[in-house]
Design brief:
Blueprint: H1 4-14, E1 21-23, H2 30-43, E2 45-50, H3 58-69, E3 72-77, E4 80-84
Parallel strand pairs: 1-2
Antiparallel strand pairs: 2-4, 3-4
Organism: Virgibacillus kekensis
Pfam family, one: CRS1_YhbY
Domain CRM: 1-96
Length: 96
């Protein structure tokens, strides 16, 4: 689990990131979870955008992504979800 201080740090790091995945009306599927997992391994911190045609609630989508990838939900802001997962091989974010 992330502490409040760590979440604040990650939020500031994620501020300038652009969403690299979009969840649409099909919702979250296995393929998407796999791709997000690979992206998390490379980057550790990513933003996922929820499109307006998505039928599920953003909190539900965030939970599904978090459970599927084992990542922490750093923040849900507007229609963006910020996810963090410590990388096995490409560790470049030093948490406070």
């Amino acid at each position: 689990m992330l502490t409040g201080k760590q979440k604040r740090y990650l939020r500031s790091e994620a501020h300038h990131l652009k969403p690299i995945f979009q969840v649409g009306k099909t919702g979250v599927n296995e393929n998407m979870i796999e791709q997000i997992n690979e992206a998390l391994e490379k980057r550790e911190l990513i933003k996922v955008s929820i499109l307006q045609n998505c039928l599920e609630d953003k909190n539900t989508v965030a939970e599904q992504l978090s459970n599927g990838t084992g990542a922490e939900i750093v923040q849900i802001i507007g229609n963006n979800i910020v996810l963090y997962k410590e990388s096995e091989e490409n560790k470049h974010i030093q948490l406070p």
